[in-house]
Amino acid sequence: CQVIVHDVNELTEKLFPIVEAMQKHFSAGSGTYYSDSIFFLSVAMHRIMPKEITRIIQVDLDLKYKTNIRELFDEFDNFPEGAVIGIAREMQPVYRHTFWQYRRENPQTKVGEPPPDGLPGFNSGVLLLNLEAMRQSKLYNQLLEPTMVQKLTEKYHFKGHLGDQDFFTMVGMEHPELFHVLDCTWNRQLCTWWRDHGYSDVFDQYFRCEGQVRIYHGNCNTPIPED
C-alpha cells in the first residue's frame, strides 16, 4: 500500500487560477478567498493529478462505511457513455430553496423537484472522479471556463455556498449526461436541517432512501447510528 501526501498549499496554488471565477458564485464568503479554492478540488482534479492517475474516489471525513470501499470502485464500470463523475443526489430540499427564482419563472421545471423524476441536485460527500474521462470531455472542460460559469449562474439565478457541490448541481441541471447518479445507499445523508426550516411538508420526498445503507454521511454534525 502506497501513501502519497499532498501539500494543501501547493494544491491551492494550482487550483486557484482554474476555479477563481466560480468561487464568487459558490463560496460562503462574500469574496474570492484564496484558501476557498480547496473546496473546488474535485472540479479540477483532472488537471492537477498526474496523468497516470485515471480514477479517484474523493470522500468527506464525516462518513461511516458499512461495506468494502472496493465495491464503490466497481461503480466506475457502470458509468454511461459521456459521464465523467459519479455522485449521489442531495437528500434535502436545499436546491429547491436555492433555485426558487428560476422555479418561480419556470413553473413546469424539474429543477429542485424531488426524486425519482425531479432534479434535486447533488451531494459531494462521496465522489467518483473518472479523471481520464474528465480530461477527454470537451464539454466538461468548456463548463469550467469563466464565461460558461457566468452564463449558467445567470440562467439559473444561482448563488450558493457549498463549493464543488453547487457547481456539480448547476451543471447537472443543464447537462445530466455528465453524471452517473449513485444510489442513495452510497451516500446516505443524515442531516435534517431543512425539515425544520420551512420544508417539512416535502422533506421526506427528498430524504427517503430504500435499501441497505453502504455509507452513512453524518452531514451538518448529525450523529451516525451505532452498529
Strand order of the largest sheet: 1-4-3-5
The tally of strands reads 7
Rounded Rg: 17 Å
Order of helices and strands: HHEEHEHHEHHHHEEHE
Question: Which whole number gives the mean pLDDT?
Answer: 95
Strand content: 5-15%
Q: Stretches where pLDDT falls below 50 for ≥5 residues? A: none
Largest sheet: 4 strands, mixed
Total tally of structural domains: 1
Count of helix runs: 10
Silhouette: globular
Question: Helix share of residues?
Answer: 25-40%
Q: State the distance separating the first and last CA atoms.
A: 28 Å
Secondary-structure-based class equals alpha/beta
Keywords: Transferase
Protein name: XXLT1 xylosyltransferase
Pfam family, one: Glyco_transf_8
InterPro entries: Glyco_trans_8, Nucleotide-diphossugar_trans, XXLT1
Report on this model:
Keywords: Transferase. This protein is of the alpha/beta class. The chain has one domain (8-217). 34% of the residues lie in helices and 14% in strands. It is built from ten helices and seven strands. The protein has helices at 8-26, 45-48, 69-73, 94-98, 100-105, 131-136, 138-143, 146-156, 164-174, 203-207; strands at residues 55-59, 63-65, 85-89, 122-130, 179-182, 188-189, 215-217. Strand 6 (188-189), helix 10 (203-207) and strand 7 (215-217) form a beta-alpha-beta unit. It is globular. The model has no long low-confidence stretch (mean pLDDT 95).
